[in-house]
Amino acid sequence: MSQQNFTDQLSRQISVNFPPKRIISLVPSQTELLFDMGLGAEIIGITKFCKYPSGKIKSKTKIGGTKKLYLDKIRNLKPDLIIGNKEENEQVQIETLMQEFPVWISDISDLRGALEMITCIGELVNRKIESAVITQQMAQRFNALHKAAKTLKVAYLIWQKPYMVAGVDTFINDMLQRCGWQNIINTDRYPVVTIHDLNEADVIMLSSEPYPFKQKHADFISTLCPQSKVILVDGEMFSWYGSRLLKAADYFEQLITALNN
């Protein structure tokens, strides 16, 4: 093994024992990606929210949640590399880990950033060929995605009490645009809204995560917004920016068809 330098998506340079043999992933979508690149043996720590691939994660040490990491557990694992995300992980904890370990951080707001992340991680973990296959297939599937025939106005809810939605400069917003839909929320990130703010939406989407909206929530919001179609959607398809995107384009095709009818 030798020390090699890599640059993350925050333009930070880190030095890594290459190839890394003890990897901790702090983000569920990136954990799945690492497994799909064939790094099951190298992954030593994951979050309690990491759930794919279901048959392989049970033996891995859980190092807390994405926002509440168990730093002592991470230290005890003595990782060669930690992979996190600017939005999903808590800044102070990440900065603490950066003082002790090589920490590579992704920063993703659109499909282009996701493809770049996959390519960079492929280089970082000595899986260039595997990452190239994933990104090529991903790009092909999204290039073949047929946008909605009608530009529907959409609100995408991620939380309740208070209601929070995905605004612009989010990965979710990029997915909505690629489907041909218009996000009615034009403010940054994840603003708090009232039901009244959603009145102009043709479609109100209730995500399965981070808040697990159910049909009872859709029925209730329908009574308050009778002019809108209220549906449940798979949040993983809209917000996971790792290899799960290989399944997202087909999901979007089905959703577009359903909403066109």
Would you give an account of this structure?
The protein has 261 residues and is α/β, with parallel strands linked by helices. It contains nine helices and 13 strands. The strands form three sheets. Strands 8, 9, 10, 11, 12 and 13 form a six-stranded mixed β-sheet that branches. Strands 5-4-3-6-7 form a five-stranded parallel β-sheet, with helices on both faces. Helix 1 links the parallel strand 3 and strand 4. The radius of gyration is 19 Å and the shape is globular.
How much beta, percentage-wise?
15-25%
Q: What class would the helix/strand composition place it in?
A: alpha/beta
Share of helical residues? 25-40%
Spatial shape: globular
Q: Which terms would index this structure?
A:
single chain; 261 residues; alpha/beta; six-stranded mixed β-sheet; five-stranded parallel β-sheet; 9 helices
Short précis:
This protein has helices spanning 28-36, 71-77, 91-98, 111-124, 128-143, 171-178, 215-224, 235-239, 245-260; strands at residues 2-7, 13-18, 23-25, 43-46, 61-62, 81-85, 103-106, 153-159, 163-165, 182-183, 192-193, 203-207, 229-233. The chain is an alpha/beta fold. The longest helix has 16 residues, at 128-143.
